[in-house]
Amino acid sequence: MTATATPLLPAQFAELEKFVAEWALPSRQERYDKRLATSMDELDAYYQAVAPRAEEGIEYLNGFDLDDLPEPELNLLRLLYSLILVSYAVNVFQQPSIPDSGAAFFEMVVEPAL
């Protein structure tokens, strides 16, 4: 008898599973740290893969109670949260960090409820 692997994402988003280990991070701080530690080529690759599926992902997740998401759906939500942070680097800053911010840091004290 062989064990069946638990899917990391809902079946219709399976092609994005390669990003789960690195980008389905539980906190905003972890996602931001990941963005800062990632090259622009890697950020752009993530953005180009996930952004076209974002609206479909949001629509899919709207069918679930956010307080009781199964693991694959929670991973999808976290990928979308990471997409938000990555989109600033790709579309606005053209670099992982905020330009001309030096050592300044804005600490977020409230995160989405999950």
Main beta sheet strand tally, sense and closure: none
Low-confidence stretches: none
Described by the principal axes of the CA atoms, the overall outline is globular
Number of strands: 0
| Helical stretch tally | 5
Order of helices and strands, N to C?
HHHHH
Q: Averaging pLDDT over every residue, what do you get?
A: 90
- Give the end-to-end Cα distance, rounded to a whole number of Å: 36 Å
Decide which structural class fits the backbone: mainly alpha
Radius of gyration: 15 Å
Share of helix, binned: 40-55%
Strand content: under 5%
Descriptive notes:
α2 packs across α5 and α3 (about 40-50) packs across α5 (about 70-95). The chain is mostly helical and about 110 residues long. It has helices at about 20-25, 30-35, 40-50, 55-60, 70-95. The relative contact order is 0.19. Helices cover about 50% and strands about 0% of the residues. The longest helix is centred in the last third of the chain and has 23 residues, at about 70-95. The protein is built from 5 helices and no strands. The protein is globular, with a radius of gyration of 15 Å. The N and C termini lie far apart (about 35 Å). The model has no long low-confidence stretch (mean pLDDT about 90).
